[in-house]
Specification:
Winged helix-turn-helix transcriptional regulator; 2 domains; four-stranded antiparallel sheet; alpha+beta; OmpR/PhoB-type_DNA-bd; Sig_transdc_resp-reg_C-effctor; DNA-binding
Length: 289
């Protein structure tokens, strides 16, 4: 497998995950905006005239005169909240409104609000029309990124991200195995400070001194070196070394016991048993490869 191909597949999967995730997040945010607009229009049709009173307009105009800028006020209304079809928004939503004097229709009256905001709706009916003002309304939801994200459909992005991670793990494992095969093909292989010369079937330590094994020990050490993860099942060893023997457990135990002594005396390796079913060649604790 070419390295660039592995990288391209990983990048494509990860980029697809990010792009689809962002797209679904934007869609969820759009649904929130639409829901805020719908609930606001419904609330205005039902209770708009109750909100726009003479006192409300007077207070807003006094605040605007004092600040010389449009002033937006906040309104928490139960009817508006209950009109929202998305339950997660009901405790986080409110209405902001501002009075625009002299027929001015500019809606540039809002300060940046946290979360998600709907569109501006102008109301000119009733009392507002009589005093020549317009009242601008906007619905807001104090939603964090996490809230919007939780409302978006992220199944596909998570699946693609998981596939990218699996692909990366597979690629690393494949490359590691491939490098081991490549090393063997080049004529030598190392585990810890023990090196195998494949052509001569000879083991050397870090001082380049030959480590001598009996023929059976040599066969088993070669099997350890060439196996994935340097791990061998007991059944695998018995089938390879004593194919015609019904039960070679005791013979294997004796071979492993004697081989351990040679390995530990001459290298920084040791043979470790795994629950009586397998053996693994590992570097001794406290040593580095």
């Amino acid at each position: 497998m070419k390295a660039y191909f592995s990288i391209v597949v990983f990048v494509v999967l990860l980029a697809s995950s990010v792009i689809s995730g962002m797209g679904n997040y934007i869609d969820a945010r759009g649904r929130i905006v639409s829901e805020l607009n719908r609930a606001l229009v419904r609330a205005l049709a039902e209770k708009g005239n109750e909100w726009v009173t003479a006192d409300t307009i007077r207070v807003c105009r006094e605040l605007q005169s004092a600040s010389a800028t449009p002033v937006a006020m906040l309104l928490h209304d139960k009817y508006f909240s209950e009109s929202l079809s998305i339950p997660e928004l009901r405790d986080k939503s409110y209405i902001s409104f501002a009075v625009l004097d002299d027929g001015r229709e500019s809606t540039d009256v809002w300060h940046d609000a946290a979360g998600v905001s709907g569109d501006t709706v102008l109301m000119k009916s009733g009392l507002a029309r009589n005093v020549n003002v317009a009242v601008a309304f906007r619905a807001n939801a104090d939603c964090s990124f996490a809230t919007v994200f939780s409302l978006s459909d992220q199944k596909l992005p998570f699946t693609l991200c998981f596939m990218a991670v699996l692909w990366a793990m597979f690629t690393l494992r494949y490359k590691r195995t491939g490098r081991a095969v490549e090393v063997l093909n080049q004529g030598h292989c190392c585990v810890g400070n023990l090196r195998l010369d494949v052509a001569s079937r000879t083991f050397y330590n870090m001082e380049n001194e030959e480590v001598r094994f009996t023929p059976m020990q040599l066969e088993l050490m070669e099997m350890f070196f060439k196996s994935e993860g340097h791990k061998l099942d007991k059944s695998e060893i018995c089938q390879m070394l004593w194919p015609g023997k019904d039960d070679a457990s005791e013979t294997l135990y004796t071979l492993i016991r004697r081989l351990k002594r040679v390995v530990e005396q001459n290298t920084n390796l040791q043979i470790e048993g795994e629950r009586g079913r397998a053996y693994r060649l590992i570097i001794k604790s406290g040593y580095s490869d």
